[in-house]
Structure formats: structure tokens, C-alpha cells
Amino acid sequence: MADPLNPEVRVYPDLEALSRAATEETTRLAQRAVAERACCALFLSGGKTPKRLYQMLAEGREHLPWESVHLFWGDERCVPPDHPESNYAMAYEALISQVPLPAENVHRIPAELPAEEAAEAYERTLRAFFAGASAAPDLILLGLGADGHTASLFPKDSLLHERSRWVKASVAPAEYAIRRRVTVTLALLNRARQLFFLVAGADKRRAIQQILAKKRALLETYPAARVQPQERLVWFLDNGARGTMA
Ligand code: 6PG
What we know:
The protein contains seven helices and nine strands. The chain is α/β, with parallel strands linked by helices. The strands form two sheets. Strands 1-9-8-5-2-3 form a six-stranded parallel beta sheet. The protein has a three-stranded antiparallel beta sheet with strand order 4-7-6. 6-phosphogluconic acid is lined by residues 45-49, 74-75, 87, 143-145, 149-152.
């Protein structure tokens, strides 16, 4: 049995190989979830890294029971759903438009609304969908910023201590082009059955090495260091991100 306290770390030569492996794991997990619970609740990550995985899921569309798959997002930028910086827009182009997914199975964050309003609306969506005490996301996909942020949970943000709300408005640091965001909190992330991080590129190496070193002092610095799903945590890394342990 996997141990979320001891994450699996898998290293691949490049993003293509990383995406292929993550696609296979995601497909197997979704098939099992549907077989066991007649549903797979899959949370998509934003950013650029997961796009190739989404394209591969679409290329292998015949392997997934799409009528039983429900898509959610871990975060969204406060832009319209057809904006080039929208996480939904990227997933729509790479995956949703390519597979026979019923429209009612796509649970988009309504980030065109004011951030607080969008967060409250999405909280209602998630609370309704995961109403049962044991109801939980089957798989959450996450990326990692070079500063160690994940979803739109940024280093040293007070949101890291949010214990009750599953969705909150967030503000990215000044260096980010789009600062107003909506993000799930650790309360939701850690409810997931399984959680995969997809991380590629040498710019992520320092954050990865510090997070995997599990230095308790870094729990405030790296939101990703506080992620602990119920059953299984897997880091899918390319050589650039992993480097060699210091
Ligand atoms: C977002 C993502 C964010 C992303 C990281 C990594 O909305 O930006 O949710 O957490 O996963 O910033 O982004 P890249 O994959 O583009 O490096």
C-alpha cells in the first residue's frame, strides 16, 4: 500500500516521457475508480506542464469511460474562460474539445466573476458533489512553481492555514502577470485519495530538492510541502527538475 507520508518519486528523461507515464497512471486510476465507484472525480492543474498529459489523454480517449469522468480545477486565474491565460481554456483546447465528455461533467471555476464570489460559488459546487463523508476527489493533478507555489497557494500566504474552506480567492505575488486567482485550499487537496505532481524544468530543481528533503522549517515556505493526500502521492519529475540530490 502506498504511503502518502513517503511519496513516490519518479524521474523521466524529459516532459514527453513524464507525460506518457502520468497519462498511463491517470488512465489506470480512472478506470479503477469507475469500476469501484461508478465515477472518477479528476482535478486538473493549470500552467503549461500538464498540457502534454491532457493531449495524451485525448489521443487515448478510447481507454477512458468519459461519461463517468467529472473534471474539476485546482485553481483558475480571474479571466474569462476563453482568455489565453485561462487554465480552463488550455484544458478545453487540449482535452475537453477532443473527448466525448458530457458538458454537465465539466465543473469549471466561474473565474469571470469577482474572485470572492467565484470562490464561494465553487465551494458550493464542490460541497454538493463531495457531499458524503467519504466522498473525495479520486485524483488531483498539481504543478509546482519555481517559488514552490502549487495551485494558487503561494509561499507564506495565510491561505496555507485555512482549515475549513475548500476554495478561496487568492492574490499572486507582484511578479505574476495575473494576480487575482481562485484556488482550492490544502483542506481540499489533502482530502484527495491520490495526488500527482507534474514538474519539469531545471528552474524547479531547488524547490523540489528542498520539498523532498522534508525540512519541517520549509512547511511555511513551500505550500507543496504541506500536501498530503489520503492514499498516495506521486512526484513525476523530469531530469531537469530532479537534478542530483545536493
Ligand atoms: C497556475 C497553476 C500553477 C502551475 C505552476 C507551474 O494556475 O499557474 O495552477 O500552480 O501549476 O505555476 O506552472 P508551469 O507548469 O507553467 O511551470
